[in-house]
Amino acid sequence: MSSQFREAFLETAITTFFNDNYSACREVFLQNKHHLDKINSEHQSWDLSSELAATSKLRAAPKRDAESTISLTTDAVWLGDKEAKKVLVLISGTHGVEGYCGSAIQSFMLHALQQGWIVLPPNTAILMIHALNPWGMHWARRCDHQGIDINRNFIDFDQRPKLDPRYQELLACLIDPDANKRRVKMHALAQQWGQRDYEQIYSGGQFEHHWAPFYGGTEPAFSNRVIDEVISKWQLDTRGLTVIDLHTGLGPWAYGELISDHADGDKGNDVAMALFGHNVAITALGNSFSVPKLGLLDYRWHQLMAKHGCFLTLEFGTLGTDSLFDVLINEHLFWYKTPNPDVDDPSYQKHKKAMLEHFCPQDILWQQAALFRSWQLLQQYLTSTNN
Predict the structure, then answer these.
(1) Greatest CA separation for the chain
(2) Potential cystine with 246: which of 9, 102, 319, 337 (Cβ 3.0-4.6 Å)?
């Protein structure tokens, strides 16, 4: 790393890119894209236009002014050769509140391209999908406006998975308003079932209780349809794809784990290992902090990767699993009892603050680690694909 990069990174990494509301994140992202437009105007073969993937006129105003709305938007930006056969797709905001960190990473990558810290080789492009779940990002929620966890929504809805019978025991714990008693009961279930089975039953995806965490819905969500639109628009089924979905909240503090949910023996794992080596943790082998799950966004992209390509989740750890589950349960119970809160409601603000503290910590070293790790992996991708 050059001293110039190190000094510039430390100076700009935090104040420039991290924000705590959706509109500010989108503005920074589009500003950095606009600056890149000017610098790279001589690259006539580049498609640097900001493409609107989808706009949802979802309620985003305080309850007292319910007629007022703002556009909650998923933007997609293509960077590089329009005809590129190798495409890296970077997605932020699949879990809305996690988009605050994901957006910062994307904006930082645009800045790095401006500064020449990242150079795209020939026949290679980057497609950034910003705020895949804009409603969740706006309200600092993990789910969307229907309570759907986008990362459990990619299933065949004619054959919805049945609920594990043991989930009812877990559900009885979830509705206990006493957080300490709830935690004791849930720890007892984890000991009874085994930690891995417990996490899979709880967080692996369920399709019956719309108010509870990890609900996959009964039909394709807004963000699900956006992905189809993006794939069609850029004909991604004809290109060699590497997809990295940016997440936070699971795993050790400030560590960015690169997770593969490709099945054991799938070619996608071979591609991922060829690109990123032992950075890759494979859930099917049990060597990830994550467990196998239902309805992941990964599975939509796996359909395009029969011959080549890989889908990976870059997950930055924060405050641990107990904190994750506590924050989510408390937040879901609040929204269940108060489905249309006022943004100024002190209870809403309390839960929003807790969500932000868990999913995008206001800690300088954590934020620097997230940006630097992302830059490292992008450099490794570009080096590997150019060899």
Answers:
(1) 63
(2) 102
Strand order in the sheet with 280-282: 50-56, 72-80, 124-130, 86-91, 240-248, 310-316, 256-260, 280-282
Each residue's pLDDT expressed in tens, for the chain with a length of 387 residues: 556 667 667 666 566 799 999 999 999 999 998 878 766 655 544 554 444 444 444 444 434 344 345 678 899 999 988 899 999 999 999 999 999 999 999 999 999 888 888 889 889 999 999 999 999 999 999 999 999 999 999 999 999 999 999 999 999 999 888 888 999 999 999 999 999 999 999 999 999 999 999 999 999 999 999 999 999 999 999 999 999 999 999 999 999 999 999 999 999 999 999 999 999 999 999 999 999 999 999 999 999 998 899 999 999 999 999 899 999 999 999 999 998 898 889 999 999 999 999 999 999 999 999 999 999 999 999 999 877
Three-state SS for 301-334 is HHCCCCCCCEEEEEEECCCCHHHHHHHHHHHHHH
Provide the 10 A C-beta neighbour count for residue 184: 12
Q: Smallest Cα–Cα separation from 381: which of 251, 309, 275?
A: 275
In terms of C-beta density within 10 A (0-12 exposed, 13-18 middle, 19 or more buried), how is residue 76 classed?
buried
Tokens 């609900």 found at: 215
Alpha-carbon distance values, 312 to 43, 166, 262 (Å): 30, 30, 9
Rounded-to-integer distance, Cα 86 and Cα 74, Å: 23
Neighbours of 277 (CB within 10 A): 11
Q: Cα angle vertex 361, ends 61, 290, to 5°?
A: 100
CB 215 within 8 A of CB 331: no
Radius of gyration of the chain (CA): 20
